[in-house]
Write a structure and sequence with these properties.
Among the domains are: about 110 residues, Jelly Rolls (Sandwich); about 120 residues, Jelly Rolls; about 100 residues, Jelly Rolls; about 80 residues. Helix 4 packs across helix 5. It has a 6-stranded parallel β-sheet with strand order 1-4-7-8-9-12. A 6-stranded antiparallel β-sheet has the order 13-14-15-21-18-19, covered by helices on one side. Strands 17-22-66-60-63 form a 5-stranded antiparallel β-sheet. By secondary structure, the chain is mainly beta. Its EC number is 3.2.1.22.
Amino acid sequence: MQVYSPNGGTWINAAQLKAQSDAMHQKLQPYGYKYINIDAGWNDGVDAYGRPKPSTALFPNGFQEVIDHIHANGQKVGIYSIPGISPALRQANLPVFGHPECRTGDLALQPLQQADYWGFGHRIDMAKPCAQAYLNSIADLYAEWGIDFLKFDSVTPGSGHNDLSMDARAEVAGWSQALTPHGIWFELSWALDINYADYWKQYANGWRIDWDVECYCPGQALTAWPNISRLFPKLADWWRHAGPGGWNDLDSLNVGNGAMDGLTQDERRTAATLWAVSAAPFYLGNDLTQLDQFGLSLLTNTEVIAVNQAGRPAQPVSTATDQQVWYSLNADSSYTVALFNLGGSPSTVTANWSDLGLAGGAQVRDLWAKQDLGSFASGFTATAVPAHGVRLLKVTPQAGSTISVNDDDQRVEYAGTWQRNGGREVTTITDSLAVTTVDTTAGGTAPAAGVRTTEVNNDNPAINYTGTWSRSWSRGLGDYQDDVQYAETNGDAFSYTFTGTGVDYVTEKHASQGDVDIYVDGVFKQTVSTYQASGRGAQQVVYSISGLTNGIHTIRGVKKSGQFILLDKFNIRTPGGVRTVSLNNNDAQITYTGSWGNSTGRGFGDYRDDVQYAEANDDAFSSTFAGTGVDYVTETHPSQGEVDIYIDGTFKQTVNTSQASGRGVQQVVYSISGLANGTHTIRGVKKSGQFILVDRLDIRQPSLLTPDTAVFDKKASAQADVVVQLGRPASDLTSIQRGGTTLVNGTDYTTSGAVVTIKKSYLAAQPIGYSSLAFTFRSDYRDDIHAATANGASFEFAFKGTSVTWLTAVAPDQGEADVYVDNVLIQRVNLQSSTRGTLQSVFTRSALSNTDHVLRIVKVSGTVLRNDMIRYTIS
């Protein structure tokens, strides 16, 4: 119970708290509610040792009387605190209880730093033994009073400060150390930074994932629908971090009284459902003496409470629309399924069993209605779910159904050191076969084999334009992507920095155009004419260079004469056999040390419109990747300076990210290729300038297609099928597409083992020019795996069923694993493969008795062991 009142701390007086305790005892305690948590305002000043002292105005008979009353009702008591030490307490220089050698005047970190969101106090220097002694003295006092719960507010990173300009982590660890011996629950608040989720899980029992749910509209309501709906995308990221030992806190649940909640009845039920399926604590924000009947029905539904107390946080199938299905797999093989309609009008919401990992029929029960709905073969559709409404279901698979369990399910228990993903996962990958179609009958020339050509349109944000340029689109004149960039003033210029071995400048030729000076890497190369006496030539290659060293180069064109200069596109040539994967600056695969922030919505042409930035020298970024090369791509600007680049711990180069004027976006400032195919780490350290920025990293990996370039000649006697060797098992290939149109297996192409043959009949029907066939390979199950590197690391999965199958990755870096069922070694499986494969069935055990079983996998050899999915059959 946590109540917000516009009267602030004056509301939480002794009489009110005892009344709340009595109301809970009468109405809610039989259903498991047991905490009376008192928020900010309970204390007033400090004692002679700098420890918080309860307010005598609020508690005229002493705070202990209130605590004793709550305990007498069989309940627990919680109070509130924030990080730091106040200026007044620092100046008072009081002794620390039990440690006369310690004084409060010595506890603040020097130089002084702000400790909390509001600036009430200074950060404590937890490196000093006296700081821990001070926290211990307060925790000991709380324990003497009988305190059971502490909410620690304004914790950073979080609470509106995620850039480490404020950092309460050391105090969190100190408070955890002080409270743990007393068994006091430790709750962190608010909007904690998910990048430090493992830290919060190490030291706390719960953590607020967002801002206050209250709307702070006194006299009107406690909350509002937008404050509820914004939690869904947060939970889509946070759900996996909750579990036994620590839980996601959604703030107070304000659904108990329609007159004060600020929500419709459907919205109240939706909020209660979200808290329940998220296994979030039911901290009630209502006046418990004023609960209405509908509110009581929500808060005392035993089937919904059982969902909450099962401790199985739900995850979304997708958050792409307002009609969302969230689910969790329970210990008894049933599913909890919530069908949310977050839209503003009634809608249909469908749960497909396959999306949950269930193959087979199931019985369905409505938990709010407490009604069995019947058996459903492949899914359940709820019609006319109200605006902002929900249906909450229990889905019980029928005999013979199979259940697929992801590696991150709570029922999978890991022993040893395991990491989720860490660059060892495979997401859905699309690799392109670059096809150049020519017709030598008509005088066409076939390009050199083994060269990949990528087309870069004129509106690519990495192209820099100087002078006055405009874009003309929907011209209908045959331009690439039907647009061009143009300028009229001599001296206006374009430039583009690329990685490759060659480039074509492609533009329109027309009588209104003239000469353009071309520079490559700052060296004048040629004056080209874009003039054509009559007519209009679209997509004309007016300048081309090949044979450059594979690396970073810049082409620049300067208008010299004519009325206009136009740019349509560039053709960039790179060696075949390599594909590039781009990591945005906020990708979990990139780690940052120091004080970094994220700037979004800049509108400067950044990749995905955001960058990470830092200001202090020696702040750094690093990323461990699998591949043969990497590019550091960032903005260049006068405010930036030098960055030291390290590869695998070895200093490589100091790169300059400054430019004299203007702003260069998506600039490749460092590139390395030719690394041994494997795991590498790039690290960049700020050396000078006001800022260091990271926009993205481009990782080069061997292509999954051999070859990944092809030339098809339409000349009848020269036509031939294109044969491609896959670098993944054929079972991993999900589709081949050209321009969004899917090729038909058996008609447009065939597969044989790991070989794909594109039929000449299909290729002959394609237009002359460059095209790309996109080969899409499936991901690991749900885009993730768990991995361990130490031999002896293991995991277990308990189930009741008649068969079990382990499906996981095979790869060159894997070795052998021992598989046990019910503590009996059944098989040693070999997971090594010349190529990386996903969802390979490596072990199956059937004809088991329909009783409880335990599957156990132990790493024996190889660099790494991956776990992806377990599938079992129930009877």
